[in-house]
Amino acid sequence: MRLLAAPALPLHKAGPYVAAAYIVFVLLVIAYVAIIAVRTSRTERALDELQRDVEARKEEHDSGRDLEHVAAGRLTRAPAAASREGERGPA
Amino acid sequence: MGPAPTTNGRRLRVLTLATVAMIGAALALTFFYAPLDADQGFIQKIFYLHVPLAIVSLCGFVLGGILAIAHLRTGDRKWDLRSYVAIHMALIFGVGGLLTGAIWAKASWGHWWVWSDPTLVSFLIVVLLYATYQPLRFSIEDYERQARYASVFAIVAGAFVPLNFIAVRLAQGLVHPRILTLTGGNLPGSMRLTFTVSLIGIALLYATLCRVELAAKSSRIRLRRLRRELLGEDAVRPLGRSAAPS
Description:
The complex is a heterodimer. Chain A is mainly α. Chain A has a domain at 13-71. In chain A, 86% of the residues lie in helices and 0% in strands. Chain A has 1 helix and no strands. The termini of chain A are far apart. Chain B is mostly helical. Helix content of chain B is 73%, strand content 0%. Chain B is built from 7 helices and no strands. Chain B has helices at residues 7-32, 47-74, 77-109, 118-131, 133-139, 143-170, 189-231. In chain B, α2 (47-74) crosses α7 and α3 (77-109) packs parallel to α6 (143-170). The longest helix of chain B has 43 residues, at 189-231. The radius of gyration of chain B is 21 Å and the shape is globular. Classes of the chains: A mainly alpha, B mainly alpha.
């Protein structure tokens, strides 16, 4: 088979083939970039979710510490209150 | 305004700009500077895209093998990830090379595919060989084993690529035009310049896309690790079976 002997196509016939080859290349690159963009936005969403989770945990932790402070305050105030009640005596 | 770019981000930006500039220059040279080929006419313009895609793809496969050697030597997961990305991207470029080659073949020879040409068939064999890389990884659930087996595959297949190339070069009865040779080839100066710029442009595109994919995958891996460290093991959904390193 002597395929190399095939004559060159005229410009009006060759143009669509050349355009098709370059379009295939551009489409491949665009498809790849689109897939990466979707994945990146998914990662960004996961990052937002993580930030929300961490903030929620932090708030939970802070409110837990406040409760501890309140409880500790009650314990320290309790003997003084008892002595005050003792001074007043039973009603 | 977003946060200041990291060193990696800056490098990626520079690489992307260089790629865009080089591919823009390659397209300008292809269509406004390089002369029409006396034999093939306007169709030969596909050469500046098809050949660099095929060359970069084959080099990418070999690179994947070299990175796999680094993985087996060090046991570091980052080399497995790099090898995976290099092969993944080379496969995409290989498919691009096959498609553009088929279009050229149809215009030049009147056939989409010629089974009697060793260059075409051997390139198809290489692409099909690497098409099994992802299923191989996917079939192994344990990550360590998956990475090890994939590295062995990448090394063996990577060694096959230059052997295959040499065998095809030694083959007789070629249909494929032989333009690039070690003795200088048959390209006139203007065509050689255009081809060189195109090759560098496609190589830069390969490097850029590899870096983009590596950055995306590394971010996901780091995010997962961070989630585990901050919120505990329960907060991380179990990974499904995946071909990609995780």
